[in-house]
Write a structure and sequence with these properties.
α1 (2-8) packs parallel to α3 (38-61) and α6 (117-124) crosses α7. The chain is 70% helix and 0% strand. It has 147 residues and is mostly helical.
Length: 147
């Protein structure tokens, strides 16, 4: 759910997609061949559904760039000391949403979900060296955006 939310940027869509992930896992469980971790398989399904959701939104909205979709902001009372932390967190999430899709997915899977480069490669259907490159470029792009 967290990965999908951070990838798509919409809490309600993330909830719907998470339910769809578990429906697909349930329907496909009998045919699952344990060549890797179950969590990697589930993240692969979540990633594919998230990419499809982004593509669907692009078609529906006819917008040139749906990566700028602003996430729903929580309305919570803030302590005076936490304002700068929340501001930095929001700037970071906005910057992450501006990354190319493959860099964003690789970075979120590594940082938030703590998957290994090998597992990320399986989720994204790419090599470990490509994952290393994607994460490096994502971090470099974030540094530039947040300066």
């Amino acid at each position: 759910m967290n990965f999908i939310y951070r990838y798509v940027g919409d809490r309600f869509a993330a909830e719907d997609l998470a339910q769809e992930v578990f429906l697909r896992v349930y329907r496909s469980a009998a045919g699952f061949e344990p060549l890797g971790k179950v969590s990697t398989w589930i993240f692969k399904i979540a990633y594919n559904l998230s990419v499809n959701e982004i593509l669907r939104r692009k078609k529906l909205c006819n917008l040139p760039d749906t990566l700028g979709v602003v996430a729903e902001k929580r309305i919570e009372p803030e302590a005076p000391d936490s304002f700068e932390g929340n501001e930095l967190r929001e700037a970071m999430m906005d910057s992450i949403r501006l990354l190319p899709e493959n860099q964003r997915a690789a970075l979120l899977l590594r940082v938030n979900e703590e998957l290994s480069y090998s597992e990320i490669g399986k989720v994204l259907s790419t090599s470990v060296s490509s994952v290393e490159s994607l994460i490096f470029r994502a971090r470099e792009n974030l540094r530039k955006m947040l300066k």
